[in-house]
Amino acid sequence: MNPYNTPIYNYLREYAKKNINIFHMPGHKLSRGIPQELAQEVLKLDVTEIEGTDNLHYPEGIIKEAEELAAKAFGADKTFFLVNGSTCGIQAAIMSVCARGQKIIIGRDSHKSVVSGLILSGAEPVFAYPQYICDFGITGAITAKSIEKLLCQHPDAVAVLITRPNYYGICSSIEEISSLVHSHNKLLIVDEAHGAHLAFNEKLPPSAIKHGADICIQSAHKTLPALTQGAYLHVNGNRVDTDRLKLNLSMLQTSSPSYILMSYLDIARELMEREGAQKLDLLIDEIEWFKKELEKCPEYRVLSNSMYDFTRLVINISKLGISGYYAEKLLREKFKTQVEMADFENLVFITTTADNHETFSALLDAMKGLPKIIDYKKKTENINMNSNIIKKYYKELHNNIINNLIETNGVTNMRKAAVNNINKGVLPYEAYTAIKEKIPIYESCGRICADVITPYPPGIPVLYPGEIIEEKHIQYITAIAEIGGTINGLSHNKCVQVVK
């Protein structure tokens, strides 16, 4: 029994003792994926910039050597270690290629860190909308055709930023998009936060680095045996102003970088380079076994297509008649299994080289047991009603994309007249600097959003700062909250921040 009054430490120690089958990040899975000789006496790695330890912001010694080894392993021309996560890498990338007022084409399914990058740079977003996968109710890939259309409509855009893979493991065609973007003499930034492992096995979709992304940001901690906040930023070619990039990274990252995080970025690279291909082969085999066994359960459907990173397990549970949020709760409380993320009808499991037959067998038992403990008589109308609202929201978005009804110019879309032409949208950095007020979400229709409204996870904004709040947004956000989802950007009393 720990005698110290240390709430965080105490809880985490107890969590580790519960022997929970974890399918969430970080990728080392409570140290399972790291040789024990490399996981001991971590506090002895916690040093500072002294003689011999080098300096992250001006590397000339061991950090420079480690970054060069990483660049070689991942296939990049230059690699920067990040200790503030992929977030700071995405922000720095946008700030390094965009000046205030310049346009950048971005995937509408981008992480909320892209929003902060837009605010910091003052850039004007032009939205590329992903496809929609009806059967699972999730966003899919962004097509090269949609990017090409935007490049032709907005020749003054300076760069393109896409997320690949997305939270569900779906990969846009990077070879096609990269070739297209460069044919228009634009820069390509890829948020590959969920794809640091792709470079180490040819059975998986190729990393964006392989096909010439100018900047590629990867969260090592998501799928590699690294610690949370550890990430890589890779640069290819000579199109990127690396001096400007270095300056932005030095401004966004702490001036006291963690040597523990940097050490494990180095360790993760070494372990993957040494045995990653073999371990990923074993992981893929285990996933295939698991999927075949789960196919015997009619209650579930597993996401799989040709553009998919199949180390990411996405299981649709809609036939159970409960929300994904409730299924996540039941798995944790009744079967000691913790998923990475749940949405209204899917469960997302992060699998890594730290997983094995034992963890997958336990997961299979949990999934088989889940339907047996659900009282189907309590399948409420509330769940069904809210699910229909959510599906309607995405279906409308999907139909708009198909029919080309959505205005592809992000700025024009933000500035368009709203209810009775009273309010007009503004750019993200304009909303950020404006005077704001909080009002109930149900009273916000027609107002200008002044915050990032994001179901988290997966962290994809429903509303950007500067966008007009519409009734469909209110219904969708409310439905997610009522089913049990978490909405970042809303206060506990369901209020939203708007431009005054």
From TrEMBL:
Q: According to the lineage, what is the superkingdom?
A: Bacteria
The transmembrane residues are: none
Which InterPro entries does the UniProt record give? Answer: Orn/Lys/Arg_deCO2ase_major_dom, Orn_Lys_Arg_decarboxylase-I, Prn/Lys/Arg_de-COase_C, PyrdxlP-dep_Trfase, PyrdxlP-dep_Trfase_major
Q: Does the keyword Transferase apply?
A: yes
* Domain named Orn/Lys/Arg decarboxylases family 1 pyridoxal-P attachment site: residues: 6-297
The prosthetic group or cofactor this protein requires is:
pyridoxal 5'-phosphate
Q: Looking at the keywords, is Acetylation present?
A: no
From the UniProt record, which GO molecular function terms apply? carboxy-lyase activity; transaminase activity
Which UniProt keyword terms apply here? Aminotransferase, Decarboxylase, Lyase, Pyridoxal phosphate, Transferase
Q: Start and end of every Orn/Lys/Arg decarboxylase C-terminal domain? A: 395-492
- What does the sequence similarity comment in the record state about its family? Belongs to the Orn/Lys/Arg decarboxylase class-I family.
Instruction: Output the PANTHER family linked to this UniProt entry.
Output: ARGININE DECARBOXYLASE
Q: What name appears for this protein in its UniProt entry?
A: Aminotransferase class I/II-fold pyridoxal phosphate-dependent enzyme
